[in-house]
Amino acid sequence: MFFAALFAMYFTLRSVTGAAFWAEHASALNVPFSAANTTILVLSSFTCQMGVFAAERGDVKKLRSWFIVTFMMGAVFIGGQIFEYTQPGQEGRDLAQFGPVRLVFYLTTGFHGLQP
Q1: In this predicted structure, what is the pLDDT of residue 16?
Q2: Euclidean distance between the first and final Cα of the chain, in Å?
Q3: C-alpha–C-alpha distance, residues 113 and 6, integer Å
Q4: What pLDDT does residue 29 have?
Q5: Each residue's pLDDT tens digit, 48-75
Q6: What is the mean pLDDT of residues 79-99?
Q7: Degrees (nearest 5) of the Cα angle 69, 73, 78?
Q8: Where are the alpha helices (DSSP H) in 1-99?
Q9: What's this model's pTM, rounded to 2 decimal places?
Q10: Which of 22, 30, 36, 91 has minimal CB crowding within 10 Å?
């Protein structure tokens, strides 16, 4: 439910600020990088579930293998988020100029990184 609230926040901010505001800031987005990072996050759910299936079968070796892969994918995702968090500052852009765009980005991705 918590992530549903974050998506509701995104859709609300998007409708309140209007399409022109978001289109203006779209050029600052690195869509290919974000898509790759999102793919890693989604695929890590599958590797984690494969570990659960291995545990249900009592296969500890496979469980550990799948969870190591899941951990590594999670580490890559967090590394990608750190990279994305630091980009605007390195490019000399003021984070405040993005307003709600950055707010939504940091809240949704930050909570993804914190969730166990």
Answers
A1: 87
A2: 15
A3: 14
A4: 74
A5: 999 999 999 999 999 999 999 999 999 9
A6: 71
A7: 145
A8: 2-17, 19-25, 31-57, 60-90
A9: 0.74
A10: 91
Over residues 104-116, the pLDDT tens digits come to: 777 887 777 676 6
Packing angle, helices 100-114 and 60-90, rounded to 10: 160
Q: What's the rounded Cα separation, in Å, for the pair 75 and 88?
A: 22
Phi, psi angles (nearest 5°) of residue 44? -65, -25
Q: Distance (Å, rounded) from C-alpha 104 to C-alpha 87?
A: 16
DSSP class of residue 115 equals: -
The tokens 């439910």 sit on which residue? 1
Residue 90 pLDDT more than 60?
no
Neighbouring C-beta atoms of residue 13, cutoff 10 Å: 16
> CA 26, 35, 16, 97: dihedral to nearest 10 degrees?
-50
Burial 68-82 (b: 16+ CB within 10 A, else e): ebbeebbeebbebbe
Q: How far apart are CA 59 and CA 16, in angstroms?
A: 51
